[in-house]
Amino acid sequence: MKILITGIGGPTPKGIAKSIKEAYPNAYIVGVDANKFAPGHYCGFPFDKTYLVPNATTDETLYVEKMNDIIQKEAIQYAFVVPETEVLIWSKLKEESKMPCDSLIPNAKVATFIFDKLNVANILLEHCLTPLTLNITDYSIVNLEIIGSQLNYPYWVRVNKSAGAIGALKINSIDDIINWTKFNGNEDGLIASTYLPGKNYACKLLYKEGKLIVSAAAERIEYLLANAAPSKISGMCSRGKLINNIELFDSSVLALEIIFKKYKLPIEGMFTVDFKEDINGIPKITEINIRHVSFTNAFALAGVNFAEKTIEAFVYNKKINLGYQIFKEEYNFLRGVDNELIIFSENDIID
Question: What SS3 state is found at 251?
Fold first, then answer.
């Protein structure tokens, strides 16, 4: 079996590759990245071979040409496309029936819609699934004062179309948002949302042709290099917990059904629905990622291997309907800057 994984500069592709190797030790995995200093180029295992490719966002045509060349040369059977900007490009290729190989890619219109956090917030707000979210298009003091009065202080700002917690900050006063827009700039497109002070969750769901293959949930507790981010959220979870929470699953399914119904399409793709609890402890959706997340290998180590099930369903065309997975034990997981991801039992925690 020959598999391609894109974006090997980050932890998510490595986690996918390790999950594949755990299920299929003899799988041949090719990694690609536009950064010649991406760690995946030099780490060896779990990648058998790597290639430097053009940057997808700055030269889409060259990127597609290079990907076609690599896939043909290596006889790739299936691709895991990880960075969302690349998912968007592949979704357009899918719409034009020009994908260089098979891959679990959502419909182009749906992918573009979901990548915009404001779109997701607006369509789900009437179902009480998301916090009130406003688009900051006018950075005048008068308008910023209006936003503060609509959301009340504190509220939350971040970049609308981005990965992780880019541009995120808790706004406690009008001075905070004025200073933040001066520092961060406004060209990236900031959005403002009701502040959610509670726990942070992720629910992963894998769909094929409208059928749920497998789903599971986790809690994010601590973040890598948190003190380096003004928001204290770096976007990369360093400590978390695999959890059993059917409420997260139900809300995630409903959210995806609402979005795909808008386009009259069956749900298909790999999704990670992010939540934070409001002041009443009710989880609200903050965004939906059209990809795996960085601790995907934690699920695999606990017996829910999304990469394996993707291959079974899409490469081998097996009919799988595992549904929402309840863990026998809610394992903790840890990941450090230079340490491999590990999972361990509550009983193993040192007093």
Answer: helix
Residue identified by tokens 């995630």 is 252
Residue among 6, 14, 4, 1 at smallest CA distance from 300: 14
- 60: confidence class by pLDDT, cuts 50, 70, 90: very high
Residue type, 273: V
Residue 214: closest CA among 344, 117, 338, 302: 302
pLDDT tens-place string over residues 259-292: 999 999 999 999 999 999 999 999 999 999 998 8
Please give the radius of gyration of the chain, using alpha carbons only, rounded to the nearest integer: 20
Cα separation, 168 vs 224, in Å, equals 15
Phi-psi bin for 303: left (phi > 0), alpha (psi -120 to 50), beta?
left
Distance of CA 197 to the CA centre of its chain: 21
pLDDT in tens, 98-119: 999 999 999 999 999 999 999 9
CB 317 within 8 Å of CB 235? no
Query: Which tokens go with 116?
Result: 């915009």
343 CB burial (10 A radius; 0-12, 13-18, 19+): buried
3-state secondary structure of 63: helix
Task: Give the containing element (helix H, strand E) for 211.
Answer: strand 211-223
The answer to whether the CB of 171 falls within 8 A of the CB of 155 is yes
Q: Identity (one letter) of the amino acid at 9?
A: G
Is residue 256 a contact partner of residue 198, using CB atoms and an 8 Å limit? no
All residues at 6 or more sequence positions from 331 whose CB lies less than 8 Å from its CB, including other chains:
241, 242, 298, 301, 302, 343, 344, 345
CA distance linking residue 28 with residue 48, whole number of Å: 6
Q: Name the phi and psi angles at 55, rounded to 5.
A: -65, 125
**pLDDT of 166 strictly over 90:** no
